[in-house]
Specification:
The complex is a heterodimer of chains A (about 400) and B (about 375). By secondary structure, chain A is an alpha+beta fold. Chain A has 13 helices and 10 strands. Chain A has 3 domains: about 80 residues, no CATH class; about 120 residues, Butyryl-CoA Dehydrogenase, subunit A, domain 2 (Beta Barrel); about 160 residues, Butyryl-CoA Dehydrogenase, subunit A, domain 3 (Up-down Bundle). Chain A is globular. Chain B folds into 3 domains: about 110 residues, Butyryl-Coa Dehydrogenase, subunit A, domain 1; about 110 residues, Butyryl-CoA Dehydrogenase, subunit A, domain 2 (Beta Barrel), CATH 2.40.110.10; about 150 residues, Butyryl-CoA Dehydrogenase, subunit A, domain 3, CATH 1.20.140. Chain B is built from 11 helices and 10 strands. In chain B, the strands form 3 sheets. Chain B has a 4-stranded mixed sheet, covered by helices on one side. The longest helix of chain B has about 35 residues. Chain B starts with 6 loop residues before the first helix and ends with a helix. Classes of the chains: A alpha+beta (about 400), B alpha+beta (about 375). Chain B: Keywords: FAD, Flavoprotein, Oxidoreductase.
Chain lengths: ~400, ~375
């Protein structure tokens, strides 16, 4: 038993770090360091830089353009990318659609969609949740009825992240409403969002941003060639997608980067006449988060090692531990850095706009973005299977209650 | 990175698990607690026969030449059964002091006996006024007649009343709470002037108050460097933290398993109480805490061989905090989910609860170590 990285793994980390340092556009890094989410063009630009290096499809087999990394290398890559900080790879393309097509897609689907997904020529989004189907996904109702060479899709999806940026949507639709088991009447369809009959409406989140959408389908004609896997077998495709490798689920690099940033800016603000970083309560709060991050780092290594050992084909139920603790730490670190900002974190303020009008800043340039980040990260324990659902999974898979 | 066990380690855990499942049922343990000594001489000899008492001791001294991971696995197994024998005091604390500071003669004389199970040690360092402050030592050792004269008192010395030899810290220089001036001495249990008042801790394990009044020891009793024992004391404490962290993992495993079993079998309102989602989620939260704690116990063990003392201390403190918090949460929830039966002396879960409670208050509690980490935040 040995917790240290091998010299090869350490060298790999250096290689990744150096590449990101040398190739991540300065402007993108600076915006992200100040807490801004990446813009659409930032994510596309960075994904293409990574794709040129052969790293964008980081978890795919070499046959389909992946780098052929071990699970540990993937974990290192993701951590370095997050802590740079660089835009995250579009998970819809890389960790969701890609592996699904590789496992279930036809040759034609793979050849057409995989290279485009890796290069972000197509921006994908996920059409799973519906107004009546959240945690209880199998109760979804969006219907797809066969009509010649097409399915005709009618229904509504909701909480569709980035649908307004997207070109395509992979959707779960009901193809057999009569199936005895709800799960048995569902299919997995690829839908071109430019098809007539699709309307994307924004949902503004509590942070003021437009990230989520509703997507309405009215008599949308989808070629049967866009079915992935067999008709009515879409539930197993979805289960594969959701249970697929979850190396990155803890997003530990992000929490680490935020805590580092909080300590840095805590030198600039004051508490009781001294720099906040010298305040005992603040230091204990940081120490507590750092302890939990360390524990999660090792738990993640255990999960990744076990995954590698199992030949990479069995999701570890302990991934749910990573999801629960990882999102708790994302939230804790976002709260920490917001609290450092204090009252100057509260204004709705866009420094770029203010600069155009020659208005002076209200506070430090990083502060205004800290409240929206905190607000947005409340979603972390909701998406990807709420943390309560993760506990249900642990109960079923590990505890047997 | 590698989380696999070697064949030897698998063999070790298997044979220890077999021995303990035969000889350490809750009833058998309760019977041991009722004896005057509070633990089993016979089992101690079995540990010796299995090579456990010599596990981390070098082969040249009759040991097994094992490493920190081996000790971790053993302590985890001990934790699952709440083993009462003085392994921590003798092999981990005393043994580490000897291995790090003993000269060839001292090691050659003592370690083979420890490995053979014929000699027990105790680590007499903490004093009543010191609480968890490792440098707060008032006991003095003054040069006298070619040797030293020890004067002072030690508090809550684990297995202090039954040890054959004690590793005693004392000031040969410096003043209270100074890092310099500390030395370690080997003191025989029957040394004139040494008085031992034994008692039980809340978990049933044995400890003692020591008073040393004009205890004369020869020059050869000095263990390691005069005036510069602090790094050794530090490492002995770190070894104790890593070992008890593993013990807590074992204890949490048993408590969690007992709790799951109870949730599946206890029927109220016509169904097993484990069908209530509130309780299912609590059990899942216990699992999350236990796994995070397990990671930290591994960190503590792996860090023991880290050469950078500051980095080592930081990781050990992180582990002490992580395991302390996990242990407290899991054991409190284990009692809570058992309800009334969890409160009874007749039921095992409360015994695990008390062991975890005692361990949290050894070698610096959670708040102490969190404070140390907070001081280093930068």
């Amino acid at each position: 038993m040995d917790l240290r990285f091998t010299p090869e793994e350490a060298a790999f980390r250096e290689e990744v770090r150096a590449f990101i340092r040398d190739h991540l556009p300065r402007e993108i890094r600076e915006r992200m360091r100040l807490g801004h989410p990446p813009r659409k063009q930032d994510t596309i630009a960075w994904m293409r830089i990574l794709n040129e290096r052969g790293w964008a499809a980081y978890s795919w087999p070499t046959e389909w353009g992946g780098p052929g990394w071990t699970p540990i290398q993937r974990m290192i890559f993701l951590e370095e990318n997050l802590s740079a900080p660089a835009p995250e790879l579009l998970s819809f393309n890389i960790t969701m659609l890609g592996p699904v097509l590789i496992q279930f897609g036809t040759e034609a689907q793979k050849k057409h969609f995989l290279p485009r997904a890796a290069n972000l020529d197509d921006w994908w989004c996920q059409g799973f949740s519906e107004p009546g189907a959240g945690s209880d996904l199998a109760s979804l109702r969006t219907a797809a009825v066969r009509d010649g060479d097409h399915y005709v899709v009618n229904g509504q999806k909701i909480w569709t992240s980035t649908a307004h940026n997207a070109d395509w949507c992979f959707c779960l639709v009901r193809t057999n409403p009569q199936a005895a088991k709800r799960q048995d009447g569902i299919s997995f369809l690829l839908i071109d969002l430019r098809t007539p009959g699709i309307e994307v409406r924004p949902i503004i989140s509590i942070d003021g941003s437009h990230h989520l959408n509703e997507v309405f389908f009215t008599d949308v004609r989808v070629p049967v060639g866009n079915l992935v896997g067999e008709e009515n077998k879409g539930w197993s495709v979805a289960k594969y997608l959701l249970g697929n490798e979850r190396t990155g689920i803890a997003r530990l690099g992000k929490s680490k980067e935020r805590v580092r940033f909080a300590k840095e800016v805590a030198k600039e603000v004051r508490m009781n006449g001294r720099p906040l970083i010298e305040d005992k309560a603040f230091r204990q709060r940081v120490a507590q988060i750092e302890v939990e991050m360390k524990a999660l780092e090792i738990t993640q290594l255990r999960v990744v090692s076990a995954y590698a050992k199992a030949g990479g084909n069995r999701p570890d139920p302990l991934s749910s531990v990573l999801k629960i603790k990882g999102t708790e730490l994302l939230q804790a670190s976002s709260e920490l850095v917001m609290d450092v900002g204090g009252p100057q974190a509260m204004p709705v303020w866009q420094q770029e706009l203010a600069a155009l009008a020659n208005e002076p800043a209200i506070g430090p340039d990083w502060a205004p973005q800290m409240a929206p980040n905190y607000l947005m990260l409340r979603a972390a324990s909701i998406y990807g299977g709420t943390n309560e659902i993760q506990k249900n999974i642990l109960n079923k898979a590990v505890l047997g209650l | 990175m590698d989380f696999d066990l070697t064949d030897d380690q698998r063999l070790l855990t298997d044979s220890v698990a077999r021995l303990l499942s035969d000889s350490y049922s809750f009833e058998q343990r309760k019977a041991l607690l009722k004896t005057e000594q509070g633990w089993s001489e016979t089992l101690w000899q079995k540990y010796a026969e299995l090579g456990l008492t010599g596990l981390p001791i070098a082969e040249e001294h009759g040991g097994f030449g094992g490493g920190a991971v081996d000790v971790m696995l053993l302590m985890q197994a001990f934790g699952r059964h709440l083993v009462l024998e003085p392994y921590l005091a003798t092999v981990v604390l005393g043994g580490t002091a000897l291995r790090l500071a003993g000269d060839a003669a001292q090691q050659g004389e003592i370690l083979p006996e420890v490995a053979a199970g014929s000699l027990r040690l105790a680590f007499a360092h903490y004093e009543r006024q010191a609480r968890y402050d490792i440098t707060d030592v008032l006991t003095t050792a003054k040069p006298q007649g070619g040797g030293f004269l020890l004067e002072g008192a030690k508090s809550v010395v684990l297995h202090g009343a039954t040890a054959d030899k004690l590793v005693v810290s004392a000031r040969t220089g410096g003043s209270r709470a100074e890092a310099e001036g500390l030395s370690l001495f080997l003191v025989d249990a029957d040394a004139p002037g040494l008085a031992r008042r034994g008692y039980r801790l809340r978990d049933g394990t044995e400890a003692a108050e020591l008073s040393l009044s004009a205890v004369q020891v020869p020059r050869e009793a000095l263990l390691g460097l005069q005036d510069a024992a602090l790094p050794v004391i530090q490492r002995v404490v770190e070894a104790g933290i890593a070992a008890t962290a593993a013990e807590v993992i074992g204890a949490m495993e048993t408590m969690h398993a007992m709790t799951l079993d109870y949730l599946k079998t206890r029927v109220q309102f016509g169904k097993p109480i484990g069908e209530n989602q509130a309780l299912q989620h609590r059990a899942a939260e216990m699992l999350v805490a236990m796994e995070q704690g397990r990671s930290m116990a591994m960190l503590a063990t792996m860090s023991l061989e880290e050469e950078d003392a500051a980095e080592r201390a930081r990781h050990i403190s992180m582990a002490k905090v992580g395991v302390g918090q996990a242990g407290r949460f899991v054991s409190q929830q284990a009692v809570q989910l058992h309800g009334g039966i969890g409160m009874t002396e007749e039921y095992a879960v409360g015994h695990f609860f008390r062991r975890v409670m005692v361990i949290e208050h050894l070698f610096g509690d959670t708040a102490t170590h969190l404070d140390r980490l907070a001081e280093q935040v930068a």
